[in-house]
Each structure stands twice: as C-alpha cells, then as structure tokens.
Amino acid sequence: MIPRLLGGLAISLVAGVLTGLFGVGGGFLITPTLHILLGLPMPLAVGTGTLNIVGTTTSSLWWRRTSNLADLKMAVVLFGGNALGAYLGADTLHRLRQQGDLTLGGGTVAAADLYTLLVYLVVLSAIFAWMFAETRRSAGQGQTQGLFARLRIPPYAAFDSLGGRSLSIPVLSYFGLILGYLTGLLGVGGGVILLPALVYLVGMRTHAAVVTSSVMV
Amino acid sequence: MAFLRILAILLIPIVWGLASARLIEWLRERRKARSNKECQP
Fold it and tell me: Which of A155, A172, A178, A216, by CA, is between 20 and 30 Å from A83?
C-alpha cells in the first residue's frame, strides 16, 4: 500500500514538473506508468491519469495567469470537437473493456489493456518521428507557418496569436475531434499531441502554444 | 440511427467552431465599439 502511494506521488511530481515546463498535462506519462509500475488495469489508469491532469494543468495555469499568452479563441473553437471526441474515445474504451480477455502466447491479457497500449505505442512513436523530422526541416527557418495555413477550406477565422492570420474552422474542428478521441481513449490530456501540433500544424509561437495547450488540457 | 450518429459527429464540431468563433469576434467588436464611444468627447 505505502510503496504504491509513494509511487503515485513520485509519478504525479514528475508530471507536474513537465506540465509547468512544457504545457502538457503529463497524461502520456501518468497513464502508462500507473499501469506498468503500479499495476493498475489500463481503463483505471486512464481514468486516474485524466483526473490527475485536472490538478496539474490548473496549477500550471494559475502560475501563468498573468502571462497573457493564451489564445482563448483557439481553445474555444477546438473545444467542441474535443469534447465530442473525448466522449467517443471513452465509449471505445468501454467497448474494449467488454471484449474481455485475449489469449496471447499461452497467457491471457485484457483486450482493453493490449489495444490501448498498442495505440499508445503508435501515437507516441509517430509524434516523436514527426517532431524530429519537423525540427530538422525547420532548423534555421525561425517561425513556421504551419500545415493548416495551406488547407483552405471555408469558413475561416482570424487568430491574434498568429498575427491575425486566418485558419479554416472545419480543419481546426476536426483536429479537435481527433485530439479529444485520443484523450478519451488513452487518458492523455492532449497536451503531448496539442503542443507540437500548435507549433508545427497551426504555426503558433512556442510560448503561446504552451499556455494555449494548458488552457485546452 | 447510425447515419444520424455519424452526421452528428461530423456536424457538431464545425457548428460549434463556427458559432464560437463568430461569437468571440462579435463580443470583441462590441467591446471595441463601446470603448471608442467612451473615448469620444
């Protein structure tokens, strides 16, 4: 009981430091470590991780409240798809739990645990590869315009954090939907995906992206 | 039923995004107009 409690506190501390530093909720770290190190079933780890994110990001936002860098318009526009996506992701997780156990190599493993860990692996590996490639590509170029600026699907909205540049509302809305789906399915607050996406896809400056990401999470 | 569900999933994010963006723009315009009015002698 006590090692589990101390382990939980240590994981939460590391997640808190990451939240303050990068504007991510720490869910990408909390959920798998709760499952692997503390032995919590994956659906329980997802729920616990999501709850923990509320505390870490609220604290992070409180310390940044005077920075005035958050793009609230961006956060509100993304929220609709995000909320719906989170519901759909949680629904998928619920369906996976109903699948019961799978037999793998003579042993049994919960289908929900296996599938969510596989999605975790794919998503985090893809983000790592993408950020690595983007960093190399944009080295020395300064501020990037972002991929979303090239997708011209009306209607549009202008954003202050982009220097008044306009972006497609459908593109942003469906981006929020995908982000929310991963939040509901994996228990990540979305920051680990949202932060690089705001910088490289939306074209936001890093400091503004960190604070806006915290607001969204 | 499944068709309606898919339609809702496709439409809700866009309707929300459009409505919220226009609402925020309208609120900002209103605030700007009000502050301009107060500045006039």
Answer: A155
CB-based contacts of A53: which residues, under 8 Å, 6+ apart?
A: A15, A25, A26, A27, A30, A189, A217
Best A87, A173, A175, A177 residue to mutate vs chain B (most B CBs within 10 Å) = A173
Q: How far apart are CA A160 and CA A208, in angstroms?
A: 11
Separation of alpha carbons A215 and A76, rounded Å: 10
Residue pair A188/A178 in contact (Cβ under 8 Å)? The answer is no
Task: Read off the pLDDT of residues B1-37 as tens digits, 9 standing for 90 and up.
Answer: 889 989 999 999 999 999 999 999 999 999 989 888 8
Q: Which residues of B touch A174 (CB under 8 A)?
A: 13-14
Tell me the per-residue pLDDT of A52-105, one tens digit each, with 9 for 90 and over. 777 777 777 777 677 777 788 888 999 999 999 999 998 998 898 888 888 877
Collect all residues from A whose CB is shorter than 8 A from any CB in B: 72-73, 76-81, 84-85, 88, 155, 157-158, 169-170, 172-174, 176-177
Rounded to the nearest 5°, which phi and psi values hold at A107? -105, 170
Which ipTM did the prediction report? 0.87
Q: Which residue has the tokens 């995004």?
A: B17
Predicted TM-score (pTM) above 0.90? no
Inter-chain contacts counted by CB atoms under 8 A, chains A and B: 53
